Structure formats: structure tokens, C-alpha cells
């Protein structure tokens, strides 16, 4: 009889921005059974197991694949055969009609864990995948295809990477052996992807986290190119290509460090003091403050019967807007937030991407929470209480953003309010002509900002790294960097108590954050970092940013922060950016003035 046999296509390759191969196709051999040509499939498998090792997992996978196959399809029972196994089967092949050795291309990820949350992985097509393909009328395009992208760009660019299968018209004998090929339509290879990721920068950033948990996103402000996208800890995508074993799957899922979680994309955190530069611009652009306005910072902000503490208990004296950023005055921003109100803050922050989808070319991005009175009523069926607003000003309260959103906002600030959509795929490449098409050719929109206000905030961020909390991490750089440290609360403390990390379980300690860009006059890189439970922003996150900038801008690896400077750093750094937890009902509104 004559049958139509799909001819598999070659899946597109994935490279970093410098041509380093991140996802490849490697030829290998599989042992396959055509059920329609075998009298008894189970007995055949038992007989094969006497020649080639076939484990329980191989049998389970075969049964799953058999359910969705057609009778004349060949279904793999063993993959990636060794040379010795090939030779053993070849010697007794005549005993197994309907069983064939086939050469197939297998996906492999040469760098293992590096950038695994960006690249993603492919896996066998599941019933859910088939239903989705049927809904989009694409199932016929996957004839002869066993795998599909599951996460990362392998998933989000599946249509580009997949290509089109070919078709061969084949005459077969009654025993299922191929007699001759009658005609052949060749397959079309999938497009290659050129990522914006600099894999060397990515590897170093991952290394600098050590065994700590956290996330880092570095962006080129003028283009929106994501230069590094770090989620720690990570996983090896090669484990998933052929079907992960149950023990490894269970270990990954039950790991308390959550290696499968894409932290920059899915994890949400309070931004702490990294929010203050944006609050400063909000205060200026709304007319709530002028650059010359000052307050007397006694170390707290009093609202009715409640006192919101400053991270510096003794206060910061007379504070204007520039100083409020450099010394990270909580008191200043408690009052700014209270005077602005939550809805005006929300409206200013929304165009920066806080609490919004950035539109990055990865699936399942988390929106986070940018609070407003409308949001709270919809979420909790409660009105907004005035006592909830001050905490918003220092990046606490209901604020909950992804590190991707913070990096995107930082890049927009560095780019003078010109918004470029962040993306991890820089270009799509034709595999034959190697012609490339950029994915984000132009800006999305612009945020209306006064030039003098923008310059004031940027210069204050430079002073943070010269005289403020970032000064030790950024001492003696060969460039001018702007930055802001942040420390975000994980659990609340009672009023009157002092935070002491040594008396708190490690996973309950504050998060360490840092946002920065450099060089200030012509920004080439903007970054946002969180080290979970890492403590002060200057202690854990800022040194990683310094190393990142030194390597990317100067091509060198910086020395470590001298150990003898760390105690002084901790004494002089912001002690904490958060107030104690307060229920809204407990905060009394002050009596209105006549």
C-alpha cells in the first residue's frame, strides 16, 4: 500500500547576541515500533528488552505516545541508543518486523542551567498541547512532530522555531517495510533566534549570586534589549527534553528554593527605597513639591495617633528633594505620599510599567500590584484608608512589583522617559539567507517629564553612589553611575521594636534591592536586582551591580568590597525602609485644620 509519511523539519537554533549557541539539534538514534505492523506490542517490547535495556519509564512513555498515534506511525520505545546497542539490534533485526532504528534530531542545551528561564525547553506534545493546537487549527502542522516549546522563548516563539514538516509518499510491503519512495515534499526549517542576552554577562551574574536566591534584569535603555535575565536558583533544561523522571521532578517541585519559578517574570516584591526616585518625580510633576521645598525630619512621620518610623531613628535634619534621595529619608516620602494620595501616585506610576504587563516576549508575565482606591475596593470590597498611603511612598504597603518591572522603569528613567518594550529576542534569522529582522524596531511611547526635574533626580542618584548608601560598592569606578539601594520588609515588626536580622529566621529577613544605570550621560546598561533575604540593599545587591557594570562597561572583573568596610557600611546605610505593620483601622485621621 501507499502511505504518506511526515518528514520532520529542523527546529530553529537559538543564539545569544554574540553568536554563542544556546539551543542546538543533535542527531541520535531511536528504537521505534510501528503498532500496525506488530502482532503483539507488549510481547515485542518484552523480547526487545532482552537485547536492549528498556526501563519502566520507557514503557510508560511509550504507552502515552501510543494513545495519540496512528497505526502506521512509529512510536519510540528507546531514545539515544549507544553504538553497542545499535550493533546488538542490527544483528537480530530480522526477528522484529515493524521495529526500526531511526535517526532523529534531539534538542540539547549546551550551557545547561545558564539562562534556562529565558531559553526554556521543549517537551513531548501533551493532550493539552494537542487541544490547543486543534483550537488554533495548527495540529496538521505538527504531523511527524513529537515535541513542542514548553517555557521561555522555546514556547513564546514556537511558531517561528517550529518550521513546516515535509511529506513523503512511500510504498510499503505487507510487513511494513519501505519498498520505494514515490514523491517527496521537503520540510522547511524553523527560523533561528538571536537573543539580546549577553551570555557571558549572564553567566557571571548567575555566579555572583552564589547560593543565594534572587533575580536580576539588565536592560540596554536605548533599545530595550535584555542583556541579562537571572533567576536563582535555576534548573537544567536538558532534563525535560525526553521526559523528566518522577524523582527529579518531585525534587524540583518540592525544593523550598523554587528553582522552577521564573523570579524576574513571576516573583513580586515590595520595591523598598528603589521606589523613591520615581516618587520624587511624581511629587515634582504633580506640583506636590518643588526642588526647594524642605521638611524637618525628626525620624518619624506622625499621622493621628500613629508614628511611622524612619530608617534613621535620629532623623535627617532639614531635607529637600535631592537630599531625600541621597540619604533615603523615609519621613520625606511618607509625607509626600500622604499629600499626593494613592490615586495620583497610581496614575503617575502606571506609564512607567509598575503593576502593568511590560509586554516582554515571554509567556506568563505577572502584573504585580500598583495600588489605588479602585483596586482595593475591587480586591477587598473596602475603601482606601488614609493611613495606608504613607507606606506606599517608601515602596511598601500594597506595592508589589516584578524585578522586570523595576528594571524596565529604571531603563525608562535612564532613557529620559522614552519607553522601549523590553525583549529577550533581538532578531529572527532566516536559516538559509541569515537575513535578520529586529523584533522591537522603535519606541513604544514617551512619558511627559520636565528636563530640569529629570536632571535633578538623576544627579541625586549619582550622589547616592558618591556620598550615600551606594558609595562603598561604587568607589573608584571608571564611569559615573546612578543608583538607589532598597531594603524591603518580609515580615512586620511591632511598634517600638527594633529589627535585628540575627534574631530572625533567614527566610524572614529583609530583601536586598538595588536599581542603577550607567554611564549617566549616555546610559548603556540599566539594572534591577533583588537578593532575597539578603538584608540591606548596599550589602548584597549593590556589589553585584558594581561587578556587572565593571564587566560590561570596562571589560574587567572588579575586586570584592573590602571586608573591613562592611561594618561601617552597615552602620551608615539605611537601617530599614519600612514601618511596622499597621492595620488601617488603627490609624486615626488627624482632625482637619480650620
Q: What can you see in these coordinates?
A:
By secondary structure, this protein is of the alpha+beta class. It is 30% helix and 21% strand. It has 20 helices and 23 strands. The strands form seven sheets. Strands 2, 3, 4, 5, 10, 18 and 19 form a seven-stranded mixed β-sheet that branches. Strand 8 and strand 9 form a beta hairpin. Helix 8 packs antiparallel against helix 19 and helix 11 packs across helix 13.
Q: Gyration radius, to the nearest Å?
A: 29 Å
What class would the helix/strand composition place it in? Answer: alpha+beta
Helicity level, as a percent range? Answer: 25-40%
- Uncertain parts: 561-594
Query: What's the total count of β strands?
Result: 23
- Tertiary shape: elongated
Main sheet specs: 7 strands, mixed
Terminal CA distance reads 97 Å
Mean of all residue-level pLDDT scores = 87
Beta-strand residue percentage:
15-25%
SS element count, helices = 20
Key words describing this protein structure:
594 residues, alpha+beta, five-stranded antiparallel sheet
Summed up:
This protein has 20 helices and 23 strands.
Amino acid at each position: 500500500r501507499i502511505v504518506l509519511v511526515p518528514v520532520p523539519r529542523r527546529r530553529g537554533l537559538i543564539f545569544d547576541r554574540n553568536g554563542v549557541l544556546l539551543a542546538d539539534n543533535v542527531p541520535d538514534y531511536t528504537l521505534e515500533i510501528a503498532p500496525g505492523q506488530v502482532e503483539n506490542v507488549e510481547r515485542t517490547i518484552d523480547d526487545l528488552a532482552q537485547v536492549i535495556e528498556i526501563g519502566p519509564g520507557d514503557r510508560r512513555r511509550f504507552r502515552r505516545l501510543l494513545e495519540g498515534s496512528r497505526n502506521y506511525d512509529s512510536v519510540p520505545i528507546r531514545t539515544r541508543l549507544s553504538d553497542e546497542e545499535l550493533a546488538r539490534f542490527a544483528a537480530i533485526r530480522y526477528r522484529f518486523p515493524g521495529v526500526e532504528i531511526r535517526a532523529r534530531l534531539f534538542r540539547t542545551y549546551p550551557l545547561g542551567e545558564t539562562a534556562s528561564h529565558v531559553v526554556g525547553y521543549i517537551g513531548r506534545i501533551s493532550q493539552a498541547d494537542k487541544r490547543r493546537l486543534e483550537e488554533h487549527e495548527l495540529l496538521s502542522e505538527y504531523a511527524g512532530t513529537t515535541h513542542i516549546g514548553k517555557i521561555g522563548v522555546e514556547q513564546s516563539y514556537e511558531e517561528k522555531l517550529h518550521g513546516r514538516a515535509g511529506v513523503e509518499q512511500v510504498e510499503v510491503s505487507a510487513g511494513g517495510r519501505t519498498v520505494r519512495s514515490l514523491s517527496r515534499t521537503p520540510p522547511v526549517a524553523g527560523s533561528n533566534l538571536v537573543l539580546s542576552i549577553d551570555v557571558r554577562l549572564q553567566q557571571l551574574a548567575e555566579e555572583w549570586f552564589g547560593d543565594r536566591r534572587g533575580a536580576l534584569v539588565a536592560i540596554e535603555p536605548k533599545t530595550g534589549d535584555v542583556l541579562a535575565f537571572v533567576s536563582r536558583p535555576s534548573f537544567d533544561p536538558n532534563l525535560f527534553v525526553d521526559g523528566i523522571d518522577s524523582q527529579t521532578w518531585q525534587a524540583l517541585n518540592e525544593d523550598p528554593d523554587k528553582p522552577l519559578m521564573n523570579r524576574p517574570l513571576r516573583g513580586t516584591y515590595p520595591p523598598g527605597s528603589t521606589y523613591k526616585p520615581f516618587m520624587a518625580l511624581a511629587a515634582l510633576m504633580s506640583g506636590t513639591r518643588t526642588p526647594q521645598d524642605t521638611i524637618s525630619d525628626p525620624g518619624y512621620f506622625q499621622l493621628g495617633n500613629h508614628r511611622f518610623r524612619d530608617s534613621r531613628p535620629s532623623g535627617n535634619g532639614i531635607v529637600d528633594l535631592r537630599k531625600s534621595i541621597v540619604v533615603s529619608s523615609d519621613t520625606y516620602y511618607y509625607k509626600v505620599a500622604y499629600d499626593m494620595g494613592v490615586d495620583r501616585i497610581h496614575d503617575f506610576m502606571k506609564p512607567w510599567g509598575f503593576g502593568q504587563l511590560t509586554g516582554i516576549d515571554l509567556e506568563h508575565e505577572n502584573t504585580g500590584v500598583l495600588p489605588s482606591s479602585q483596586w482595593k475596593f475591587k480586591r477587598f470590597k473596602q475603601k482606601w484608608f488614609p493611613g495606608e498611603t504613607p507606606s506606599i511612598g517608601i515602596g511598601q504597603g500594597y506595592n508589589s512589583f516584578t524585578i522586570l518591572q523595576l528594571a524596565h522603569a529604571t531603563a525608562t528613567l535612564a532613557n529620559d522617559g522614552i519607553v522601549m518594550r523590553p525583549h529577550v529576542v533581538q532578531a529572527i534569522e532566516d536559516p538559509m539567507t541569515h537575513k535578520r529582522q529586529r523584533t522591537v524596531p522603535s519606541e513604544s511611547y514617551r512619558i511627559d517629564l520636565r528636563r530640569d526635574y529629570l536632571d535633578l533626580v538623576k544627579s541625586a542618584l549619582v550622589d547616592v553612589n558618591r556620598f550615600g548608601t551606594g558609595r562603598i560598592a561604587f568607589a573608584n569606578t571608571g564611569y559615573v553611575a546612578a543608583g538607589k539601594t532598597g531594603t524591603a520588609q518580609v515580615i512586620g515588626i511591632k511598634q517600638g521594636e527594633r529589627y535585628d536580622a540575627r534574631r530572625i529566621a533567614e527566610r524572614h529577613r529583609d530583601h536586598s534591592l538595588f536599581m542603577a544605570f550607567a554611564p549617566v550621560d549616555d546610559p548603556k546598561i540599566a539594572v534591577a536586582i533583588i537578593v532575597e533575604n539578603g538584608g540591606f540593599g548596599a550589602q548584597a545587591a549593590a556589589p553585584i551591580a558594581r561587578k556587572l557594570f565593571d564587566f560590561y562597561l570596562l571589560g574587567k572583573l572588579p575586586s570584592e568590597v573590602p571586608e573591613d568596610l562592611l561594618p561601617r557600611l552597615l552602620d551608615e546605610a539605611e537601617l530599614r525602609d519600612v514601618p511596622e505593620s499597621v492595620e488601617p483601622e488603627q490609624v486615626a485621621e488627624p482632625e482637619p485644620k480650620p
